[in-house]
Write a structure and sequence with these properties.
nine-stranded mixed sheet, 22 strands, mainly beta, 4 helices, four-stranded antiparallel sheet
């Protein structure tokens, strides 16, 4: 399992040697689906004992795997259908990533790269493409981006993809990867988008979408904290068919903004018995905002007020433990609210004391989480 974790870290932490012409953000977007299927592939192959790195005859093999990943990135900002993500830094929402993953034997000696004349990819149509070495992918990679699904489908269509490693020592080694006649996947449209903008984090929340995925597709749902960028929830990789996923209660914090990413991936080619192995997939990602209700929900309330002998006011409040709580005051319903006390309650209810004379003749109080 340590080897799996290391490979995932390489695929997602791709900042060491960025491919020329690609921003780090774009490179991360390009490997979202790749990361998922590298994980799937390695877990399955370690169990089966078929991957070249664990196969007894891998020592003399330079290339471990040739792969093609076609991906599309969409955003949903309302109940309407998702739209292609807006280009950032010149990188478009439709991508193709071609990878020639090198064997451990090849990578164990850095001087092996000095003997490589060129690594190329010949698609079924179009010019010969050069591939660049990337430590993040443990091999050679070529990125391609497009402004539309039709353009990606046209450039990366069905047929034979010929990967060639040209070495001074071994000459040309050519490996073919066949891609069947398949179009890109439609983006999943979340049906309860409005509900996802105001739901109780303390209760299970089910995200529903269309179209329903098929038996040949895998589904993943990840949720990220908008402020920190940290992934706070991962449903894992699930088999289709599916058209809904439930986020368990208390997986998210109340009163927070999140971004959810719903990923659906279809396996187009899957040959792990060959050396090198061959793999191709088509994936689509829909990103959408989500927001949880403020902590406490209907239970947030000032339930009691009492006056002490010294004139101080005691406020008893039912609230959400562990979430910052403010007691605010105002001199009138139309006046500005000001913070009177703040705390992070360890339990509910909590009592806050306001010093005598601090409220004036007339005050309105409210609790906010």
């Amino acid at each position: 399992m340590e080897e799996i974790t290391h490979l995932l870290r390489m695929a997602t932490g791709a900042a060491d040697h960025p491919v020329p012409g690609m921003s780090l953000d774009a490179k991360f977007n390009s490997v979202v689906l790749l990361r998922m299927h590298v994980r799937l592939r390695w877990i399955g192959l370690i169990i089966l004992g078929l991957h070249p790195s664990v196969w007894s005859g891998a020592g003399a093999q330079d290339v471990a795997d040739v792969s093609l990943y076609r991906s599309a990135y969409y955003e949903q900002v309302s109940d309407a259908a998702p739209e292609p993500s807006a280009p950032a830094d010149g990188n478009n929402p439709f991508t193709a990533v071609s990878v020639m993953e090198m064997s451990e034997a090849f990578l164990s000696d850095p001087e092996n790269l000095d003997w490589v004349r060129a690594v190329t990819l010949q698609r079924p149509t179009g010019p010969l493409m050069g591939m660049t070495f990337s430590e993040s992918f443990a091999g050679f990679v070529a990125f391609d981006t497009f402004t539309s699904a039709a353009a990606l489908e046209s450039a990366y269509r069905e047929g034979i993809y010929r990967f060639t490693l040209s070495s001074i020592l071994t000459g040309d080694e050519t490996y073919n990867l066949g891609l069947p006649d398949r179009s890109l996947l439609p983006p999943p449209r979340v049906l309860n988008f409005t509900a996802a903008q105001d739901f109780d984090a303390g209760q299970p929340f089910t995200l529903r979408w269309e179209p329903r995925s098929t038996l040949q597709e895998y589904i993943e749902l990840e949720v990220f904290d908008v402020e920190t960028g940290e992934r706070v929830y991962d449903a894992g990789i699930l088999d289709g068919p599916l058209d809904s996923l439930t986020i368990p209660a208390d997986s998210l914090l109340p009163g927070k903004s999140y971004q959810a990413e719903l990923i659906i991936t279809r396996i187009d080619a899957d040959d792990f018995e060959s050396v090198p192995s061959r793999y191709a997939s088509t994936g689509v990602l829909t990103a959408l905002p989500m927001r949880t209700q403020s902590g406490g929900g209907d239970s947030l309330a000032i339930t009691a007020l009492s006056l002490d002998a010294d004139g101080s006011v005691r406020c008893t409040i039912t609230c959400q433990p562990g979430v910052p709580l403010e007691l605010q005051r105002s001199t009138g319903l139309g006046s500005e609210w000001q913070t009177a006390r703040t705390t992070i309650p360890e339990s509910s209810p909590v009592t806050l004391v306001l010093p005598g004379g601090s409220l004036g003749d007339v005050s309105f109080l409210r609790a906010v989480q």
